What we know:
This protein is α/β, with parallel strands linked by helices. The chain has a single domain (2-174), classed as 3-Layer(aba) Sandwich (Leucine Aminopeptidase, subunit E, domain 1). The chain is 39% helix and 21% strand. The chain has a 7-stranded mixed sheet with strand order 1-2-7-6-3-5-4, sandwiched between helices. Strand 6, helix 4 (131-148) and strand 7 form a beta-alpha-beta unit. The longest helix is centred in the middle third of the chain and has 18 residues, at 94-111. Bound molecules: ligand AR6.
Amino acid sequence: MQVTVGTSILELVEGDITQQDTDAIVNAANEQLRVGGGVDGAINRAGGPQIQEEARKIGYCPTGKAVITTGGNLKARYVIHAVGPVYRGGHQGEAELLASAYRESLKLASARGISTIAFPSLSTGVYGYPVKEAAKIALKTVKDYLKDHPEIKLVRFVLFGTPTYQTFAEALAQV
Ligand code: AR6
């Protein structure tokens, strides 16, 4: 599923983010930038140890922010490590922190001349954010950014499994 925002494309696909050929893929990281499970584990396994070596040198990334490393052996040249919030019921600033994690990743892409980028659904695995709410925030934040930043030509959400894909597809129809 695809929509255009200005001159850019916003796309939803079901699949595995480690296989994407965008300039950058985004990792759902933790503040310590230590390899965990979920999409983080998959990206580090597929990309090799260089990613973690660079991440270790950076050392820390606060929730709502993002840092960038090599893509190692991945098709993508870069991995942007975004730290989404742990969901604690929705009244601890989670929505703004989730939006910020997407926005900061996009800002980093713009600054580095990255024009195509793939995101997973940040915070909706181990960090427990309800997918329906997270999808609306993710899509609105990306759409708003693309309106002002035509240098980003493609944002692809790579959703793991049909239920997550469907939830994003429904949210895209609403935002
Ligand atoms: N491609 C795309 N999406 C994936 C893949 C994949 N290969 N594998 C899993 N997902 P999570 P979080 C989906 O838990 O909630 C780690 O331990 C998954 O189904 O990876 O932000 C980190 O180190 C879900 O929809 O990230 C942190 O400590 C989405 O990716 C913590 O988990 C995000 O799930 C971050 O938790």
